[in-house]
Amino acid sequence: MSRMLIAGNWKMNLTREEALSLTGKLVSTLSEQRAVDVVLCPPFCYIPLVFQGIKGSTIRLGAQNCHPEPRGAFTGEVSAAMLESMEVQFCIVGHSERRQNFGEDDAFIARKIDALLEEGIWPILCVGETLEERKADKTWSVVSGQLKSCLEHVSAEEVSRIAVAYEPVWAIGTGESAIPQQAEEIHSKIREYLKETYGTGSAEATRIIYGGSVDGENAPEMLNQANINGALVGGASLDVEEFEKIVKAAAEA
Ligand code: PGA
Q1: How many domains does the chain contain in total?
Q2: pLDDT tens for residues 49-60?
Q3: 86: domain CATH number?
Q4: Closest ligand 1 atom, CA of 236?
Q5: Range of the domain at 193
Q6: Is 241 exposed, middle or buried (0-12, 13-18, 19+ CB in 10 A)?
Q7: Is residue 212 within 6 Å of ligand 1 at its C-beta?
Q8: Residue 133 CB coordination number (10 Å)
Q9: Relative to the CA of 126, which ligand 1 atom is closest?
Q10: What global pTM score does this model have?
Q11: Helix (H) or strand (E) holding 249
Q12: 173 lines ligand 1 (CB under 6 A)
């Protein structure tokens, strides 16, 4: 079984001082643990500061987004190559907030994945349906369509470096997490899809993590589902105690 992955997506939150303080607290509470891969994904501008803060600890550095081109006239963007040069090891792509607010489509997300793999950065690919899509019984067609298009250029050797984050859009930031069985149903379908596409070995080595209102309370049951290999945590990643509880639940799952 693959190691659990708990990634904190700070989104566009925290002042410089708060980012420093949160990093320091997380390092002191989590630096002893080795059972779980813990990744912090701060806003771009805090990457050097978090890099310094986690140095020597087991915590890893992630980013929230990247641009597929290595350089050029893309005002405001940051490339996968630049992230690599800052020693970023993971990068979230295809988050629903980017899909919705910045019009990112699967083809663009697929190019980001290619760029990240090329740079040796591990992508965290977000997929998930909206409430309307769920109500219309389209959950699996939406999720499988996103997987197929976003992973279009990915080989069986590469796929296990990707973490697929199932994030039902209706559960993000709403305090209304999917119930664990609901999440597990989709996670097991994602596993089947990966098996059919890339073979059993690659599919089993690929982490499928859940995101959407994960907190210290719902994490234990969620992380005990057969096909849930971790969590992508938004709001609760800004709270040391909550985040610590989630990491502990992952270590015990
Ligand atoms: P949330 O966010 O934990 O605040 O719901 C999760 C995410 O957007 O990755």
Answers
A1: 1
A2: 999 999 999 999
A3: 3.20.20.70
A4: 3
A5: 5-252
A6: exposed
A7: yes
A8: 18
A9: 9
A10: 0.97
A11: helix 240-252
A12: yes
